[in-house]
Design goal:
The structure is a single chain. The chain is an alpha/beta fold. The protein has one domain (about 10-255). Helices cover about 40% and strands about 5% of the residues. It has helices spanning about 10-30, 40, 65-70, 100-105, 155-165, 165-175, 180-195, 200-225, 245-255, and strands at about 50-55, 75, 85, 110, 130. The protein starts with 11 loop residues before the first helix and ends with a helix. Bound molecules: S-adenosylmethionine. S-adenosylmethionine binds near residues 63, 115 and 258.
Length: about 260
């Protein structure tokens, strides 16, 4: 699927506005600068949280590396297997509340790499028995604000924790990011609906309902205003994970990464 420069949530100005707005608001409530000793870093997450890091990203912009600096995530060697749930764009099964026991026992992991270089990742070397896709959710990080499915590491981990009922772990991770509140704001209604499901099949059915409703709302808006928003880009189920233009890469260079 091609890129859609009209994606309304994702205009550069809007992203800048949200970033400034969110940062400003959270700072008032004691949000910390990166590098400061964090109180949540001292709070324990009592299940393993891990990542394979392919070192594609600028350490200052990378959410996985930030979690590592804060002591909230452990790095795995390439080739090491992880028995818990691995959120991965190459998975075929969607995460659901039914995965709670696996996470409680063996934890949650993520693959830290660049979306632009996803095809360079040797996914066969980090295979896990419990790989999972995330259902339709929107990124709120400054790099991919408004894009469905294209979450960064902290968004992916927090969403999987929340969806499986580990609310405190989700908040501990996301609480370290100034734009974290925006992620909950734009995804809360979807996440609450996914949490009512029991199985992966039910989450997929719920996702299909949500997408149908959004399509319907878009059609109505289009009829009323002539606007053509597209909320369906980068859908892993439509095999479109790798599309990233040079222009995007330049934009990403300019942006602070989540
Ligand atoms: C491609 S990396 C990009 C990380 C980014 N550089 C950062 O600063 O966090 C994001 C990782 O989060 C997980 N992830 C993000 N969106 C996902 C989705 N829709 N389904 C499954 N996993 C996802 C995957 O492990 C993916 O490799």
């Amino acid at each position: 699927m091609g890129k859609n420069k009209n994606l309304s949530l994702r205009s550069k100005g809007k992203r800048r506005y949200d970033r400034q707005h969110t940062h400003g608001r959270l700072r008032e409530h004691g949000e910390q600068e990166e590098g400061e000793v964090s109180s949540t870093a001292r709070r324990r997450i009592d299940v393993p949280v891990a990542m394979w890091d392919f070192d594609h990203c600028d350490p200052r912009r990378c959410s996985g590396k930030k979690l590592a600096r804060l002591g909230l995530i452990r790095e795995l060697k390439i080739g090491t297997r992880f028995r818990g749930v691995v959120v991965s764009p190459k998975a075929v099964t969607v995460v659901s509340p039914g995965d709670r026991d696996i996470i409680a026992k063996d934890g949650l992991a993520v693959v830290e790499c660049s979306w632009a270089r996803i095809d360079d990742v040797p996914f066969s070397k980090i295979a896990s028995p419990n790989e999972r896709l995330l259902p339709y959710l929107l990124a709120a990080n400054p790099t991919n604000y408004g894009r469905p499915w294209r979450l960064n590491c902290v968004e992916a981990l927090s969403a999987a924790f929340y969806l499986t009922g580990f609310d405190a772990h989700a908040n501990t991770l996301m609480g370290e990011f100034g734009w974290g509140e925006a992620f909950w704001n734009i995804n809360r209604s979807y996440l609450e609906r996914y949490r009512t499901c029991r199985s992966s099949e039910e989450v997929v059915a719920m996702q299909d309902n949500i997408i149908s409703e959004l399509e319907q709302a878009r059609r109505e808006k289009e009829m009323n205003t002539g606007s053509t928003d597209d909320f369906l880009t980068s859908n892993p189920n439509h095999a479109a994970w790798t599309v990233e233009t040079e222009e995007d890469e330049e934009e990403e260079e300019e942006e602070e990464q989540g």
